[in-house]
Amino acid sequence: MSNTTEYTPPKVWTWDQESGGKFASINRPIAGPTHNQDLPVGRHPLQLYSLATPNGVKVTVMLEELLALGHSGAEYDAWLIRIHDGDQFGSGFVQANPNSKIPALMDHSGNTPVRVFESGAILQYLAEKFGAFLPAGGAARAECLSWLFWQMGSAPFLGGGFGHFYAYAPAKFEYPINRYAMEVKRQLDVLDRHLADHRFLAGDDYTIADMAVWPWYGTLVKGQLYEAGEFLSVHEYQHVLRWTDEIALRPAVQRGRKVNRTWGEPSSQLHERHEAADFDTKTQDRLDTSAT
Asked: What is the pLDDT of residues 99-124, one digit of tens each?
């Protein structure tokens, strides 16, 4: 549908709380907490506060990959932040992330707790802390970080741009959907051309770059994001699909994508994760069975 209503911006913008859209109830033009709510703290040094959106999955995959390598210091508690309910505006969460976005990580392993927010920053922090999934230096490190920051710069056009206007906006208009569909397809072509000659984004080794890009673009090319697979002809990106399928087979990835997930098949949902055994005993299918 074309936008037949011409919009003339006012001289001074004002906040219209009735603007509609899926996230209208939590979007606002100011920062800071809306209510007092302390964050829970578990028994592990690493405390994650998140939800299994693509940005949240990046970090839980990284933590599970570190544990799979034998880094016992990467044990973590993952607490569920229900963003549709406004949990991210609680006072404790705002202290962990003043930007009120998931994920947020608190590292209690030292004398003074360290907060880390923004998913890319968390991936780099953990990679440097444990010396894993990030090349130590030189061209390989530069390539890995370049693709990590490519994702951080590109995904807002996919999520906040295409995803919003295609799936979440209260009305569909041709211009913004076309504008962002074109950009998303360009991004997929960037990935496809690169992965035609590389096993992983930074070369032969799996890195935090892959962990950052996969939850967004891997989900997209499998037709599982915004129900837009057919619209974007995602089957065309064969090299991205090959890369996506290889990563999806990793056991740590399969575990990580379940953590803080509250939708889909009950067996795919582990609302909170506090120890490795939770994957065997506390997914929603097992909890539902035990409740009956």
From this structure: 999 999 999 999 999 999 999 999 99
Instruction: Show the DSSP H helices in 135-276 as ranges.
Output: 138-156, 174-195, 208-213, 219-221, 229-232, 238-248, 251-256
**Residue 98 class from Cβ within 10 Å (0-12 exposed, 13-18 middle, 19+ buried)?**
middle
pLDDT digits (tens, 9 = 90+) for 255-274: 999 999 999 999 999 999 99
Listed residue (102, 127, 113, 128) closest to 45, CA to CA: 113
With a CB cutoff of 8 Å and minimum separation 6, the contacts of 80 are 50, 51, 260, 262, 271, 272
Tokens, residue 136: 């130590």
Buried b (16+ CB within 10 A) or exposed e, 233-265: ebeebebbbebbebbeebebbebbbbbbbeeee
| Residue 3 φ/ψ, nearest 5 degrees | -85, 105
Task: Identify whether the C-beta of residue 144 lies closer than 8 Å to the C-beta of residue 194.
Answer: no
Q: Which residues lie below 8 Å from residue 185, measured CB to CB, with a gap of 6+? A: 232, 233
Query: Alpha-carbon dihedral of residues 291, 81, 153, 123, nearest 10 degrees?
Result: -80
Cα(9)–Cα(284) distance, integer angstroms: 47
CA–CA distance, 268 with 103 (Å, rounded to integer): 19
The 3 state secondary structure assigned to 76-99 is EEEEECCHHHCHHHEHHHHHHCCC
| Residue 6, helix vs strand vs coil | coil
- For residue 146, the 8-state DSSP code is H
User: Which of 160, 199, 203 lies closest to 183 in space, CA to CA?
Assistant: 160
